[in-house]
Specification:
alpha/beta; 7-stranded mixed beta sheet; 7 helices; disordered N terminus
């Protein structure tokens, strides 16, 4: 929108329109005068070139404007990647976790993550990494609905969350200061998955399939997308216990 309000944008559009109109006028004059005259042939040729140039320039500029809009949007929101399945982010997250200084998560049981990265997380906590996890209360009535939605046996989600609570308790043995590792809970259907490593945010919906199979988005740190979800997580965090 800002691009179309720029005077330079409209000046360029106006100039291109004028060139096209002059070209069309020259063609018309040449035809009216008669194509049997050398003068007519010349001005028709010039007019044709001007009109063709205006058309090509107009089409090209519109394409470039659309491309610029997309580029600005991507840069502003910091879209670093879109993954068809959440499991696809593991290649990136597994690498950056080895040197992470902070990790905020809003998820459910995190069973696969704990099994794969449990040792790395313990090492990072021992090195001073802060860890905050927001999950559903294991006594929440919505857990049976989640099991049904994701095609799990009844009690599966409750069991993974209970094991998550135990895991967090064990991790606290490695913390270097009080409050370094925290777990908070809420009691309603889950919010979007949220995974923040040093400001780089991964988020995505919970759908009628296992969480590792759902689409996930990556937002680069300091960009609008990351800031938006960071602020939302902080709001959720402050309203839970």
């Amino acid at each position: 929108m800002g691009k179309t309000l720029d005077p330079k944008y409209w000046n360029a559009k106006l100039l291109n329109l004028v060139v096209g109109l002059i070209g069309a006028l020259l063609i018309l004059v040449g035809i009216l005068v008669g194509m049997d005259k050398t003068f007519s042939v010349i001005i028709v040729s010039v007019g044709t070139s001007m009109l063709a140039s205006a058309i090509v320039t107009g089409l090209s500029s519109q394409y470039l404007i659309n491309q610029n809009r997309m580029t600005v949007m991507v840069e502003r929101w910091g879209i670093g990647g879109i993954y068809k399945q959440r499991a696809e982010i593991n290649a990136f997250t597994n690498k950056v976790l080895k040197r992470a200084n902070s990790l905020d998560i809003c998820a459910m049981g995190l069973k696969g993550f704990r099994d794969a990265q449990g040792k790395v997380i313990a090492q990072r906590v021992a090195a001073g990494m802060s860890l905050r996890v927001l999950t559903i209360n294991p006594n929440s009535d919505v857990l049976s609905e989640i099991d049904k939605t994701e095609g799990l046996s009844v009690g599966s989600t409750k069991a993974t969350i209970e094991s998550l609570v135990v895991w967090i308790t064990e991790l606290k043995k490695y913390q270097t200061y009080d409050g370094q590792v925290e777990l908070r809970m809420y009691d309603h259907y889950p919010h979007d998955f949220y995974f923040n490593i040093d400001g780089t945010v991964f988020t995505g919906p919970y759908q009628a399939k296992t969480s590792q199979q759902t689409i996930t988005y990556r937002f680069n740190r300091h960009a609008e997308g990351a800031k938006y979800f960071c602020e939302y997580f902080e709001e959720l965090w402050s309203n839970t216990v």
